[in-house]
Amino acid sequence: MGLLGMAGSAYADEAEHGLAAPSYPWANDGWFASYDHAAIRRGHQVYKEVCAACHAMSLIAYRDLIGVAYTELEVKALAAEIEVEDGPNDDGEMFGRPGKPADHLQPPYANEQAARSANGGAYPPDLSLICKARHNGPNYVFALLTGYRDAPAGISVRQGLYYNPYFPGGAIAMPRVINDGGVEFEDGTPATSSQMAKDVTHYLAWAAEPEHDERKLIGAKWICGALLCLYAMGYYKRWKWGPLKSRRIIWDVVN
């Protein structure tokens, strides 16, 4: 009875919080590992061509991509593709202008109400920090993007929702948008659904923690410096105290 109770509790918890995501081997795992910048570039392409239709990334500016996924000239060209409302001008009126690298990625909707109206009442979350805002971060995002399937027997999903066991409750308003051949990668990488999900997840992980590589590099330098200091201290200790500890004192009790 105890085992049955534990199994029922685990099933209820899984239904409420979603199936636990597996652990995947990400390129930036490990003490001295860094992001895969080719994957970040492909992931940004997936976001731009697939995800940006519903999800914003308001905390990311175009210039953040310089040296990470694109060159400065490429970023300027990307930013120039959008039109940004600026102003007011000398006449007190707002005006449109081509985007600049300092501009942030533009949201697909003007406000939350417009986003909910276009998505059946569901609000697509901002993806800037999604890999930090969700438990198990990149693993959860990847599992969610690739976890769509038909609902098993005994589970009904109301119209307008889609079954995904990794989403809390199992029913999600976002349909499956990552499909084979959804984009055409510039570097010739086959655009399978798993490859697209992996790359866009890697891009979102970078967006949530852009200082990741620099932080690890600084940490490696500090570790090397600390080891050198430790070696110098050990050498100094032996040099300073070696003669004192190895000396021999003889007491002449006769004289």
TrEMBL record:
Signal peptide (from-to): none
Organism of this sequence: Ceratodon purpureus (Fire moss)
Gene Ontology CC annotations of this record: mitochondrial inner membrane
A molecular-function term among this protein's GO annotations: heme binding
First-listed, main subcellular location of the protein, grouped into a coarse class: mitochondrion
Database matches in SUPFAM superfamilies: Cytochrome c (SSF46626), Cytochrome c1 subunit of cytochrome bc1 complex (Ubiquinol-cytochrome c reductase), transmembrane anchor (SSF81496)
Gene3D superfamilies: Cytochrome c-like domain, Cytochrome c1, transmembrane anchor, C-terminal
InterPro entries in the record: Cyt_c-like_dom, Cyt_c-like_dom_sf, Cyt_c1, Cyt_c1_TM_anchor_C
Annotated residues for binding of heme c: C51, C54, H55, M174
Keywords on record: Electron transport, Heme, Iron, Membrane, Metal-binding, Mitochondrion, Mitochondrion inner membrane, Respiratory chain, Transmembrane, Transmembrane helix, Transport
Name of this protein: Cytochrome c domain-containing protein
Pfam families: Cytochrom_C1
The record's free-text note on cofactor binding: Binds 1 heme c group covalently per subunit.
Disordered: annotated span: 87-119
Similarity field: Belongs to the cytochrome c family.
Obligatory cofactor(s): heme c
GO biological process terms on file: mitochondrial electron transport, ubiquinol to cytochrome c
Topology class, membrane: Single-pass membrane protein
Subcellular location: Mitochondrion inner membrane
